[in-house]
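STRUCTURE REQUEST FORM
Protein name: Carboxymuconolactone decarboxylase family protein
Source organism: Luteibacter yeojuensis
Requested output: structure tokens
Priority: standard
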Amino acid sequence: MSRTTAIAPDQVPADSKPTLDAFTKNIGFTPNMMTVFAQSPLAFNAWATLLGSLSKALDVKTRDSIGLAVSEVNGCNYCLGVHSFTAGHMAKLPPDEIILARKGHATEPKRDAAVQFARKVIASRGQVADADLKAVRDAGYTEANIIEIIALVAMYSLTNFFNNVFDHEKDFPIVAPAGSI
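Status: completed
Returned output:
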């Protein structure tokens, strides 16, 4: 049950409207999360800018896998639905890879190192071990890449926390908990 009221598109603050319209055009509909988020132009536009910048980080399969791992740790059912959908449709990850990412892994070794590292960052609140940094570096990630992984963890956590607080009506397919699959 939603713990907030979504607003109608004509009630969106003027400063949020261009960003929301761009998402709607790109996605093909207006997700409930964005209608609520748009009520704060400052927060919504800052998030959209971060999302746009980080869409150039790493590759789409790694980004989506990190989103799945972080959302699983944070227990965000809304984001798990979104990321499972986008991972399958945009990143072209097969269903078994989506489940694996939710559990903090990937079949491709380099992506696996990034996803494991991201999961450790969120689970430990950034208190990773030296061995964790060594593992992601040994997999071929640069310092810039590691910073991007941390930024992705933070960005996905922001939407996880936002969606967990407001518990929007789900407008993406609902997924089962990874532990029950």
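Reviewer notes: The domain at 60-180 is CATH 1.20.1290.10 (AhpD-like). The chain has nine helices and no strands.
Form closed.
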